Amino acid sequence: MDLATIVGLISGVVLILWGIMNAGNLGWYWDTSSILIVMGGTFAATFIAYPLKKVLATFNVVKKAFSHNNIETGLIISKVVDLANIARREGLLALEEAVESINDEFLQKGVMLIVDGTDPELVKNILETEIAFLEERHSEGKSILDTMGSLSPAFGMIGTLIGLVAMLKQLDNPSTIGPSMAVALITTLYGTLFANLICIPLARKLKLRSREEVLIKEIMIEGLLSIQAGENPRIIEEKLKAFLSPAVRKMLGNQEDMGAAANE
């Protein structure tokens, strides 16, 4: 779980509410009509811009913003090295039995391609094509969130214009000018908050998570091709670790040392 996303959302909401309460009454900043204009308008326009199926799928993709996979990267490298050891001792055909212990479908597919004797260049092309379509699916989710982030301030401004029209219609009653102006500005506030606290940050986090997932799959491809080429498992491990940052490499090294100490 990525605590940064959760902490960011919670702290953002809490600090904004705290600032509002220090400035006055929290009830002053609640307006149902403004919420309906901003949220209703944003979602309606998003449904117009994208197919319903893709919009609904985006809500499932958002959960990736709350995941963290540095440990998964280490597990994948360890699994590839284990496969390399099996292939070195027993041959590539022995990997067919090892497929049952692999949970990742992408890695399973790559191993089966190797077992079937597929040309290395073709293996690489097939797996890279799958990565390309994965990136396309992820970019759609990010695009939808970016669109919502650009639409919500616009609908906040529309709500402001609606409030100003209502205010101008009642200029003969000075007591309504203040409340009407407040409602008009609250709508802009809602639109800006929804865009800058939720939609745009989540889109950026999804972009980061997509890069991390693609990196893992690139590590798998490199490892599989190295296994197919008959390289030494130790060399394969060092080659795959080269994909990682020094901090992640150090973390994986510490985990290996702890595991070795536990086995002694």
Helix/strand order: HHHHHHHHHH
- Helix share bin: over 70%
State the distance separating the first and last CA atoms: 31 Å
Mean pLDDT: 84
Count of individual helical segments: 10
Largest sheet features: none
Any idea how many domains? 2
Could you explain the architecture of this structure?
This protein has helices at 3-23, 32-49, 52-61, 70-90, 95-98, 105-115, 120-169, 177-228, 233-241, 246-263. The protein is mostly helical and 264 residues long. The protein has 2 domains: 1-30; 32-263, no CATH class. The longest helix is centred in the C-terminal third of the chain and has 52 residues, at 177-228. The radius of gyration is 26 Å and the shape is elongated. The model is unreliable at 259-263 (pLDDT under 50).
List the helices and strands and how they pair.
Elements: H1 3-23, H2 32-49, H3 52-61, H4 70-90, H5 95-98, H6 105-115, H7 120-169, H8 177-228, H9 233-241, H10 246-263
What attributes characterize this protein structure?
264 residues, mainly alpha, elongated, 2 domains, disordered C terminus
Can you give me a brief rundown of this structure?
With 264 residues, the protein is mainly alpha-helical. 81% of the residues lie in helices and 0% in strands. It contains ten helices and no strands.
